[in-house]
Design brief:
805 residues; alpha+beta; Agglutinin, subunit A; Hepatocyte Growth Factor; 5-stranded antiparallel sheet; 14 helices; 46 strands
């Protein structure tokens, strides 16, 4: 393998990444003897590198000042870890050290000297004093005895959440991520298990299928599985899964992820990113425990959680803790349990809860099933289906709930008779128009839509024909007039053909970025104007033309210095694209955070940070208060704040946001959640009506990140646990009360900032994170930031400085 690497390094045509890996692999150590160590301060160099350079081993950053000792793919953009020693106990970014001792033990010590993890191979006999540690080309970290050629310890025997090609998976190993794990069960079948704090259940293979219906067998005493180099995952229980890019020469991994799904990934060496090539579950709601007790999982087309009627989230920050009822059905352990006549049922359509049936009855009527649940105190709901005969399932605990059009039955929730509880709304949470079909109630909207589209098309056609006639007419048109006309035509919002944009982007060659709504490419129009062309994703365009036409008719009129200008669009069958102005200095996250994990994030000066914050506030204030139509962005985050060469902020990706007439309506109903975790307001998860205050909350998070210089969701406690929002707001209140803003501001600025501006930004951020009714408007925020805009960049700081209130 090493010979192949050297030969590859001598090839005349190599990518820069390959050259770097070649140089890296030729200088880094692959094997070490006893007495070797690495300090976390020296984390820029790895502890070990595999001979071919594919894998590296050393300190990997997992938080603001938290690190793990891991093995990762060297060429991966985000240094994807495949094995971690101290997965749940990260060490400090200063003073921590990993050592391979003379007696053959690999040990990880924290800054205070506490031993966080060891390989437990120390204290071996004298004949094993020459133990070595090495990182193989397979990604296996191995402690071996060179004299006997035996393996003393290897990371392959202790997998975390990832399985690598050639790594055996046996009855004694498992992949784990949070409450989810992959392992061989007692019936010898490879399964995915949810093992939560309250209940545990298998969910793959689907529990509704028998072992043989799932294509497995329990005649499987060997209980072994492996991912091979061609992209095939084989198990001795007859499971066979293969990647869609089947073949040799591709770096792969099989990972159980935080959402409970098992996925296979392939590394794209040109982009250094990962592509999903297989997954165990195609429907994410089939994973158990996602929404917790009394929670319902729904996918349309992205996943969201809902509470049962009459229930609310137990913990607003964690859906896995489920929902708690706002009523009581009494204590079934008492002799005086409530009588059946004190209850009624609320129907939750096309919904089921898997498992925890306390009774099952066949060939019964709906009324009989209902009466059985009424008489049984432990019954909290029942499910009734007609499948040739009436089938009745009486439910005790309500876990693993999901809603799907494919479910032919309903859940009937038992609730007290004297409580008014409505069935859940069909509409959910999304920043887009709700479309449920051409029912009599909304069919007029579709009629109006298509009539409007037809009229617009005719007018557009007449406009083009008229313009062509004037420009091509043999009549004598003054050249100055013709030039002016062409300039006006070129500068206005226009419709492009697919061929226009394909040619402008060089067949969509240069990708600028991608997100939920689509992929953005760089293009050059005829005449030399550089633009950004967004190809809308299928899950956006498949919603129908209503959203698209609404966006076009509104966004063509929106123009503000702090909003990315839209120049035009393309709509040809499945091809739907938007054409934006090109903003050359990338997005805020690229300047504020270490996005690629390479430590090369630029340090924005304080004046630039304040300028960006103020510009973003003004842009959002325009959307909320000055547009002819009220625009909610719904996904305010650093990635959607683009920067010009002069570091002026321009908000992007508001084109698919919910649009609503300002007719006094206090909120908007949406059909599913939109946004990014870490920036989403709590009301998304609470089924509340959504208004512009969701953008205010997100802006508060961004504002605080501009001050701190790092992701808020990456902040950790001293024990390495993620900081929760109540802890963050408590810390902010202390800073506002004490005036000690210095401890919060990005240390990379080395004290070069305006403390009055910083304190005002912290104060605003804190108010943005309050309850919705207490949050300010974006107009108020823009005015507050403007009031401090004319100050010197670095005024002298004094101990007497206090909070601005």
């Amino acid at each position: 393998m090493m010979a192949g690497l050297v030969t590859g390094c001598l090839a005349p045509q190599l990518s820069l990444l390959t050259l770097l890996l070649c140089a890296f692999a030729s200088t880094a150590q692959h094997t070490m003897g006893g007495g070797s160590s690495l300090s976390v301060e020296d984390r820029a160099r790895p502890f070990l590198v595999s001979p071919d350079g594919t894998f590296s081993c050393g300190f990997l950053q997992v938080g603001d000042n938290a690190f793990s000792f891991s093995v990762w793919f060297t060429a991966s953009r985000n240094s994807t870890a495949v094995w971690t020693a101290n997965r749940y106990f990260p060490v400090n970014g200063r003073g921590s050290r990993v050592s391979f001792t003379h007696d053959g033990e690999l040990a990880l010590a924290d800054a205070n000297g506490t031993m966080v993890w060891t390989s437990r191979t120390g204290g071996v006999s004298a004949r094993r004093k020459g133990l070595t540690i090495s990182l193989n080309d397979t990604g296996n970290l191995v402690i071996s005895d060179p004299f006997t050629s035996s393996t003393v310890w290897q990371s392959f025997d202790w997998p975390t959440d990832t399985l690598l090609p050639s790594q055996p998976f046996t009855k004694d190993t498992k992949l784990v991520n949070g409450y989810y794990s992959l392992n061989f069960d007692n019936d010898n079948v490879l399964r995915l298990l949810y093992n939560g704090p309250d209940v545990a259940s298998f969910y793959w293979p689907l529990p509704s299928l028998s072992i043989y219906e799932a294509g497995r067998t329990n005649y499987n005493s060997s209980r072994i599985a492996a991912l091979n180099n061609t992209g095939v995952f084989l198990s001795s229980d007859q499971l066979q899964a293969q990647a869609i890019d089947l073949g040799l020469g591709i770096k792969r991994r099989l990972t159980i992820e935080h959402d409970g799904n098992l996925r296979m990934y392939s590394l794209n060496e040109s982009t250094r990113g990962w592509t999903e090539t297989w997954s165990a579950l195609k429907q994410q709601c089939q994973v158990h425990g996602i929404c917790g007790r009394n929670g319902i999982c729904e996918y349309q087309p992205s996943l969201r959680c809902l509470c049962l009627p009459g229930h609310e989230m137990t913990d607003r920050g964690d859906w896995r803790k489920g929902c708690k009822p706002s009523f009581s059905i009494g204590d079934c352990t008492q002799e005086c349990a409530p009588p059946p006549e004190q209850f009624k049922f609320v129907r939750v359509p096309q919904t089921d809860f898997y498992g925890f049936d306390i009774a099952y009855n066949k060939s019964v009527t709906f009324e009989q099933c209902r009466d059985l649940c009424l008489r049984m105190c432990q019954c909290s709901a029942f499910s009734y289906r007609l499948d040739g005969v009436g089938i009745c399932y009486l439910k005790g605990l309500l876990f693993n709930g999901y809603t799907s059009p494919n479910i032919c039955g309903s859940i009937y929730l038992k609730v007290p008779l004297n409580i008014d509880i409505s069935a859940p709304r069909v509409a959910g949470l999304v920043c887009r128009h709700n479309v449920y079909g051409t029912t009599p109630r909304n069919s007029w909207k579709w009629t109006y839509l298509f009539a409007f589209a037809g009229v617009l098309g005719i007018v557009d056609l007449l406009f083009i024909v008229t313009g062509w006639w004037f420009l091509s007419s043999k009549q004598s048109i003054p050249s100055a007039l013709e030039s002016g006309y062409r300039k006006v035509m070129a500068s206005q919002f226009r419709r492009f053909t697919y061929r226009d944009l394909k040619d402008a982007t060089g067949n969509f060659k240069e990708e600028l970025g991608h997100g939920r709504s689509g992929v953005v490419y760089r293009g050059v129009l005829v005449g030399g104007r550089v633009v950004a062309v967004k190809k809308l994703a299928v899950d956006v365009t498949m919603q129908g033309d209503e959203e698209f036409w609404a966006e076009m008719t509104v966004l063509g009129r929106i123009n503000h210095i702090n909003l990315v200008r839209i120049w035009g669009f393309c709509s040809e069958r499945k091809h739907k694209m938007l054409v934006y102005e090109y903003v050359e200095n990338q997005s805020l996250d690229r300047h504020l955070f270490d996005v690629d994990g390479d430590g090369k994030a630029a340090t924005l000066a304080w004046s630039e940070r304040y300028k960006i914050a103020l510009g973003t506030a003004r842009g959002l204030a325009y959307l909320h208060h000055e547009c002819l139509e009220w625009v909610i962005h719904c996904d305010v985050k650093p990635e959607n704040i683009l920067l010009t060469r002069e570091f002026d902020a321009k908000i992007s990706d508001f084109g698919l946001a919910k649009l609503s007439k300002r007719d006094g309506v206090s909120g908007v109903e949406f059909s599913h959640m939109r946004g990014t975790l870490g920036y989403m307001a709590p009301e998304w998860a609470l089924n509340l009506r959504i208004n512009a205050k969701v953008d205010v909350y997100s802006f508060g998070i961004v504002l605080l990140e501009i001050v701190v210089g790092s992701r808020l969701q990456d902040q950790r406690t001293e024990t390495g646990e993620p900081l929760q929002m109540p802890q963050i707001t408590q810390a902010l209140r202390y800073i506002v009360d004490s005036g000690d803003v210095m401890s919060l501001v990005d240390a990379r600025l080395q004290g070069q900032f305006n403390p009055r501006q910083a304190m005002e930004m912290v104060r605003i951020a804190l108010t943005c994170m309050e309850e919705r009714s207490s949050r300010p408007t974006m107009d108020d925020i823009a005015k507050s930031l403007t009031a401090f805009d004319d100050e010197d960049e670095h005024p002298p700081t004094t101990p007497e400085y206090g909070p601005t209130l």
